[in-house]
Amino acid sequence: MEFLGIVIAVCLCMLVSVALRFHRQHQKYDHLPGPPRDSFWSGHIPSIAKVIAAGGIMDDYLLEVCKTHGLVFRLCLWNQVLVIVLDPECIKDVLVSGNHPKSKRIYSGTTGVFGARFMDQGLLTQVDNKLWIMQRMHLDQWFKPHYIRQFASEFNEFADRYTEFLETYADGKTEVHTLNTFNKLTMHLLYKVAFNVDMGPLTRENHPFVTKMKTALSGFAVLVSNPFVAINPLEWRFRRDVREAIKFIRQSAEQVMKERSMAKSNGEYIPRDLLEYIMELKEKHPSIMTDEVLLDNFLTFLIAGQETSSNAMCFMIFLLGQNPECYKKLQREIDENVGAVSVITLNELEKLPYLDMALKETLRLYPVGKTTFRETIKDHVLGGHLIPAGTDMMVSFYATSRAEQNVRNPKTFIPERFHSDSLEKLSKYASTPFSVGPHTCIGKKFAEIEIKIMIAKIMQSFDFELIPNQTSEIQDNATIQPKSGVKCFFRPRRSGISVMEKTL
C-alpha cells in the first residue's frame, strides 16, 4: 500500500507539473486573438479533427477561424502554440524582410520517419542557416533560368512519351487516373533530367522506386498529422513497410551515386546534371557533407520535384474540366500559337499567356507547398501583436490565397485575375505557391516550364472530360492531392475541334 501511495503521489506531481506547463503556455499567448480552446489539454485539435473528418484539411479550419479572428491568430495543439499568419504584409515580414529562421521544433521532427533517416539534413529540412546557405548557393546554380532552358527538349520528349501512352486509353470510354499517371511521368522525367537514369517506358508497370516513394511519403504525412501512430501497436506493420520503403529508396539512390563515382574514375563522360552538383558538395566541403547528407539531398529533390509537379498538373486538369469556358479559351490559344509545333520551346511558351494565367490560378487554389514554419528569436511585433521570442509561426499559403480578405471570389477559378490589365490587383504576397523570400522553392522555374509544356502537349493531342460524380475533396499527404485522383476520359482531337467546343 505504501508503494502504491508513492506511485499515485508521483503521478499526481507529474500531472500537476504538466498542467502548470500548459497553463504557462496559455498565459503567454492569451493576449493574441484566436478561437476559444476546445480543451485545456488538447487545445484546438478536436475542432481540427472535425474538419478533417468532414473531408477537409487543417488549413480549411484556419480559413474558418480567420473570418472572425483576423489574419494573424494563435492556435493551440496540445501544449504547442502556433501563431498563424495569413496576412500578406505580415507574410512579407515573416519570410522576406524579417527573414526569421526555420522552426527548429517543427523541422527537426520531420527529418526521420519511424526511426528511418529520410530527408534529415537536406535542403528542405536543414535548420542550420549557415549549412543551408552553403548548400543553397551551390545547388542554386543548376536551377538558374538560363540553365533550365536547355531542358526544354527533355520536357518535350517526355510529354511525347506521355501522349503516346495516353493514345492506348484515349477511346472516350477507358478511365484514366491522371494522378497515378502524372506521378509516373514526373518521376521518370526527373530521374532522367536530374540524375541521368532512364527508368524505362511509361507503358511498363510502375518502377519499384515509384511505389516505394508513395509508401514513404504516406508514412511521412501520417506521422506529421498524427504523431501517435509512431507508438500505436496496431500500426506496426505500416511502420515496418514505411521503413523498408525508405531503406529501399536510400539504397537505390546510394547505388546511383556509386555508379556515378565509378564512371568518373573510369574517365567516362559525366553530364552536368543535378546529381553532379549534389556530389560536388562533398568535394568542396568534405568535413561537412557526408555521404548520408548527399543522400538526404537526393531524396529531397526527388520528393520536392516529382510529387509537387504531378499534383499541380492534376489539379489543372481538374479545374479546366470543371470550367469549360476556360478550357475552350486555353485550347484555342494553344491551337492558334503552337497547334502545329512539335517541340515547344520557351519562346513558344511566351506566346501562351492564358496558359500562364491558368497555371497561376491553379497554384493559387492548390499551392505546391501548403505551409512553411518560422520561429522568432526575440520578441517581435507582427501585425500589431507582440509575438514572444521562441514562438513558432505557421504561414499557410493555401489559406492565405483562399481568404476572402485577400482575394475576391476566392473559391472560383478565374485565370483572368492574373492578367496585367485585371481590375483585381492581388497583393504580391497573397498568392505565393512556391513560398517567397530567401527560401523560395529552388525548383520553381523548373516546375513551371515542365508543367506548361506537359499541359500544352496534352491539349494539342486530346480532349478530356472529368468522369462524373467524383469528389472534389483534397487530402493532405505531405503535399495536397486530389482525393479522387482526377479520373478522366480522353479522346484524340480531330480537325482541331474539341468536344468541349461542341458542347458550348
Tell me what the structure shows.
The chain has 504 residues and is an alpha+beta fold. The protein has 19 helices and 13 strands. A four-stranded mixed β-sheet has the order 1-2-9-6.
Question: Keyphrases for this structure?
Answer:
single chain, 504 residues, alpha+beta, 4-stranded mixed sheet, 3-stranded antiparallel sheet, 19 helices, 13 strands
| Morphology call | globular
> Approximately how much helix is present in the residues?
40-55%
| Main beta-sheet strand count, sense and barrel state | 4 strands, mixed
The whole-number mean of residue pLDDT values reads 89
Helices and strands, with pairings:
Elements: H1 2-29, H2 45-53, H3 58-69, E1 72-77, E2 80-85, H4 88-97, H5 104-107, E3 112-113, E4 116-117, H6 129-139, H7 145-148, H8 152-167, E5 176-177, H9 178-195, H10 208-225, H11 236-265, H12 274-284, H13 291-322, H14 324-338, H15 346-349, H16 353-365, E6 371-375, E7 380-382, E8 385-387, E9 392-396, H17 397-400, H18 444-461, E10 462-466, E11 474-477, E12 479-482, E13 487-492, H19 499-502
Parallel strand pairs: 2-9
Antiparallel strand pairs: 1-2, 3-4, 5-13, 6-9, 7-8, 10-13, 11-12
Helix pairs in contact: 8-9, 8-18, 9-13, 10-11, 11-13, 12-13, 13-16, 13-18
